[in-house]
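note to self: dont lose this again. the chain is below, predicted strucutre after it. 292 aa total, dont forget to put it in the shared folder this time
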Amino acid sequence: MINNTVKIGNKLIGDGQPTFIIAEIGINHNGSVEIAKKLIAGAAAAGVDCVKFQKRTPELCVPRDQWDIERDTPWGRMKYIDYRYKVEFGYNEYAEIDEFCHKNGIMWTVSCWDEEAVNFMSEFDVPFFKAPSACLTDIELLKKMKSTGRPLMISTGMSTEEEINRAVEELGSNNLLIAHATSTYPCKIEELNLKYITILKELYPNVPIGYSGHEVGLAPTIAAVVLGATFVERHITLDRAMWGTDQAASVEIGGFIRLVNYIRDIELSFGDGIKRVYDSELPIRKKLRKVL
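---
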């Protein structure tokens, strides 16, 4: 029997296990620890398993020719490189986040966009690392995250099947998780291609396959679970109208409450696939069945 489970904290992710649900805070906190805490508390109340942030070293991730381009931000008009620093948390902020997550009984982790970010986040006891879709072809970065000994989740938006396969070949399937994704924010429903989840499960039977969604609404994420996604990830926000590039593709806390409830109901409804007559059916059977 194929064993495709990966242990994350005190939970197993894989076929036959409860769907692991991730609320992607990303940079929707807009540089505010207080907003981050509200999102963490909301995710915990909704029954989410893990919240996720993003960590970049701005001078490594922002091309040099974009540093001095000015843009409007919540802090006024400023250079792009200065804006990128505004939305990055440092050690003290993450230490506060770590403590707050422990108090709320929820795991937290990060997507690392560069190797220095991996070094920085390795100081915290995050249970796994996530590689964003944009970094799928950065094999050295992927190996850097994998070398920490933590499980690695890779996301496959904007990627070809050949690029996905190369990443898996380079990393190996041990302690690896793969998320199907389409990297448009928000994503058109007709471009979600959820059936590819089943293809990934066929291609990589030893790897837990999940879904990272950027659509508006909840139905496709629920469908992903029905198609066999063993984990799902959606961006979370306090208000989809807030300032920020990811807010419109995010789910508000009330929506996350519904999403978690729907997924848990679906899991209960799957059953074991063995046809049986339930005790609750017997009175109806006796009353309506004419020929036995």
